[in-house]
Amino acid sequence: MSSDVADADTLDLRAIGEALATARRAAKRSQNDVAKATGICQPVISFIERGMSPSVPADTLHRLAAELGLALTIAPRFRCTKHEPTAAAS
Question: What CATH number is attached to the domain comprising 59?
Answer without folding.
Answer: 1.10.260.40
